[in-house]
Specification:
Layout lengths: L8 H8 L4 E6 L3 E6 L2 H9 L3 E2 L6 H4 L10 H5 L8 H12 L4 H6 L1 H21 L4 E2 H6 L1 H11 L6 H12 L5 H24 L5 H7 L10 H32 L1 H9 L4 H11 L5 E7 L3 E3 L2 E3 L5 E4 H5 L2 H4 L27 H18 L4 E2 L21 E3 L3
Parallel strand pairs: 2-8
Antiparallel strand pairs: 1-2, 3-5, 4-10, 5-8, 6-7, 9-10
Length: 399
């Protein structure tokens, strides 16, 4: 796997032409497997003999993974993404209330209001810079980050720092010292935020997590609290940031699809679903581990192997989506795995979908002629094979 990322689709197509499952080499020479095919991935994400806990990662338990390994946090952070069985159900239940359909719908007016404010900011930024502004920095990032910080009760002043650290954590190209520093700083920041809520609880998710108890009196311990906050912040904004960015890129490149949306022949949620399939905001997500030797799509995967979920590959798998899998078509039936499947299905899926749909409708209503200010080929990709998007998105917001 190229630690510097890049557009995954050509490599995905090449690998899928050979098999739905591929043996890969992770950074540091660690052997692993990537599941690429839609049906193979759906089966893999549902198998009871596949675990998320780091105790099942053979190379880690045998001491062959150094502290500064760029993907170590994905394996070792204590929270829902590395928990199985009863532990996973306990941790998920403590957070799920904040992302229930009712709570998400109650956020709709705030998302719409924040969208309007950020569109003003985007217009002002463009006016100050010759008609061009970075949509990612001025719109796609502050919308989900602002919503997540409001949910958590985090002062807006922390947003830039949290995003910067989050971006480093999902990067797969940092050196060991940078990896350790980013994780230590993030843990310290989250620890300070939690300590403030211990002293002065509020009407926010951090306070609720601290106070939360199940019927048997169980609660999050300190490491689980930090791990859960890390998950909510990183997944809660990075995924939606990439989703909005990728959708704008897709619609600017496919004006016929944009016309369907503006004429009412298709709706904005359909554009969100097609973006999730066609250009998933997460390309390869670490990790799951077989608890015994298994065979998937004809490929043997030894027990304890770190396995990547290949969401971007599955989204364009011709076996699942037909010969037109590479075409961006918002009228096709929604069918993808980009928000997960099974017990670990993305807890914030409803919020991400709502934010993206409101953002896209607001953006192209306010700026119907919005277009990229540079060719697609000039956009620089994120330095990660986990996140799938570009670093900046210069646009001309006109109309």
């Amino acid at each position: 796997m190229d630690p510097h990322g890049g557009c995954p689709h050509a490599d995905n197509a090449r690998l899928l032409a050979r098999s739905a499952v591929a043996e890969v080499v992770l950074p540091g020479g660690v052997p692993g497997v990537a599941v690429l095919g839609h049906e193979a991935l759906k089966e893999f994400l549902s198998r009871p003999d596949v675990a998320k806990g780091a105790a099942h990662f053979a190379a880690l338990t045998e001491g062959r993974i150094p502290d500064g390994w760029p993907l170590r946090t994905f394996a070792t952070v204590q929270g829902m993404t590395t928990a199985d069985g009863d532990d996973h159900r306990r941790l998920r239940s403590l957070v799920s209330g904040a992302f229930s359909p009712r709570r998400v719908e109650a956020l709709r007016p705030r998302v719409a209001s924040l969208t309007g404010e950020l569109l003003d900011d985007l217009a002002a930024a463009a006016q100050a810079h010759g008609g061009v502004a970075d949509l990612r920095a001025h719109f796609a990032l502050p919308l989900p980050m602002g919503v997540i910080c409001e949910l958590l009760g985090v002062d807006p002043a922390h947003q830039g720092r949290l995003h910067g650290l989050s971006n480093q954590i999902v990067s797969t190209s940092l050196g060991p010292a940078e990896v350790l520093a980013a994780n230590q700083e993030m843990a310290a920041v989250l620890g300070d935020l939690a300590a403030a809520r211990y002293e002065q609880p509020g009407d926010d998710l951090i306070s609720a997590l601290i106070a939360a108890r199940e019927e048997d009196g169980d609660r999050l311990d300190g490491q689980e609290l930090i791990g859960t906050l890390l998950l909510v912040i990183v997944a809660g904004h990075e995924t939606t940031l990439n989703l909005i960015t990728n959708a704008v890129r897709a619609l600017c490149a496919h004006r016929d699809q944009l016309r369907l949306l503006r004429s009412g022949e298709a709706d904005w949620p359909a554009a969100v679903e097609e973006t999730l399939r066609w250009d998933s905001p997460v390309s390869f997500f670490p990790f799951r581990y077989p608890t015994r030797d298994i065979t998937l799509a004809g490929t043997r995967i030894p027990r304890g192997t770190p396995v990547l979920a290949g969401y971007s590959a599955a989204g364009r798998d011709p076996a699942a989506h037909g010969p037109g899998a590479d075409l961006f078509d918002i009228t096709r039936p929604a069918r993808h795995l980009s928000l997960g499947h099974g017990a670990h299905f993305c807890l914030g899926a409803g919020l991400a979908r709502m934010e993206a749909a409101i953002a896209l409708e607001g953006l192209f209503t306010r700026f119907p002629d919005l277009d990229l200010a540079v060719p697609e080929s000039a956009l620089v990709r994120q330095p990660s094979f986990v996140g799938n998007s570009v670093r900046e998105l210069p646009v001309r917001p006109t109309g």
